[in-house]
Amino acid sequence: MLLNLVSKFISILGVFTLFIVALVAMRFCIHDFIDLKKNNSGFEGEGFKEKDIETESYGDEL
Amino acid sequence: MKIYKYQGTFFILNLFLCLVLFSNIILVKKNLEGKLVFIIGLYIFFLFLNEVLSFFVFKSDRVLSLIVWSFALVSLVILYRIDEGIAIKQIIFFSIGCTFYFLIMIFVRDINIFYKFKWIYFILSIVFISSSFLIGTSVNGSKNWVSILGITFQPSEFGKIFLVLYFGSVLECPKGKKDKSLGLFLIIYSMVFLFLQKDLGTAVIIFLVAVFMYYMKTSKYKPIFLGFIVSFVGFVFSYLKFEHVRIRVKAWLNPQIDPYGMSYQRLQGFFSMASGGFIGRGLYGGSLEFVPTNYTDYIFVCLVEEFGILTGIIIVILYFIFFLRVFVKISSSSKGKSSFLLALSFVILISVQSLVILGGVLNLIPLTGVTLPFISYGGSSLISMFIMFAIIQKTLGEVEINE
User: Fold this and answer.
1) Touching check for B219 and chain A: CB below 8 Å?
2) Are the C-beta atoms of residues B95 and B72 closer than 8 Å to each other?
3) pLDDT at B314
4) What counts of helices (H) and strands (E) characterise chain B?
5) A7–B28 C-beta distance less than 8 A
6) Residue among B393, B360, B338 nearest B205 (CA)
7) Alpha helix locations (H) across B32-154?
8) pTM of the prediction?
9) I want to staple B336 with a disulfide (CB 3.0 to 4.6 A). Which of A49, B6, B282, B366 is the partner?
């Protein structure tokens, strides 16, 4: 009985730890997302820029 | 945010999760078996090796590593619960996958090197996609296994990688109409052979990834609509042509149609998940032996039964974060660079595969036999996932260096 209870508790602790893993991962993801918004960078609905063969650049970004 | 400050925290979190989950097994079984020591030892060894190498040798995204290593751990625990022999095989596949991962991370200096071997990818794609139809054996209605020198593997899992690499090379460095025609030929060729092998799950995944890759490179909406129309036609065709597709569609529309026959698997999955409740029945508390294909397609069901729907939700969230993390990271630093096409394609492949199997298990779409990335049992699947993961990590490592 006691063993079952302890086992159940550890099982819940496992789920809780996995939850912490998700929270930590989400925290970093959200921070990156905020940085992205601040810098106003990223995709602008134009897809990737084509590489200019002559100048070896990707348009006016670089 | 400088992530390397938290490197130790990620390692400790993974280690703690490992200790908690495995101590649960030891507590229930009341002894520490040699097999379990072997699994724990190898897992911790590769966890530690990743920590050391990513600190001293290569740059990688630590959040993604945390997610993937957690998936691998959860997989090992539930597989050990289902069958100890399978868990031993899985840890060996995990070790091989990790070795490939480290090799790619250490020896590949520039991610652009992957775009230079398109003819090799073309030949390998053709070989891997068609080999199981020509010399393969049939399992569960799909002919997608090949046995060479006593080693059985699923060639389409590796074929997926070479197809994405080929499409990436063609889209990145197009050489006129010839490349476009060959790319289109390869899509049609793979679809035909995968349909003949009745491996419809992989066909759907490859098709969607090819369409998304084309869209990401060109930003044209037309192929997306065309892709959906072709998918619909393909679905209708496969429904009319293949018996096992008809069975799966009928079981999807009405899971109670034949409880002891065609919809047995689906119903057992529902009962299993329902009995798990919010926090699960506890490790070894469920009746996983009643769930068919419990260590491959239905491993998510087993997790939900023993660890609760909460764990199911967390796993879905972790897949979502995996997807979002790569997109945000690349879009924040790679404006204008097309060398990140491969990483985006691979992350889409992993996400689509997760959606296909999770949607199938939860009865949102008809069930197709694909594995749950990093969690389901399967050597070919796990090793190919680690190769894709290495390419994604390599790309994100370059992003970190550029910052």
Assistant:
1) yes
2) no
3) 95
4) 14, 3
5) yes
6) B360
7) 34-56, 62-82, 84-107, 118-135
8) 0.89
9) A49
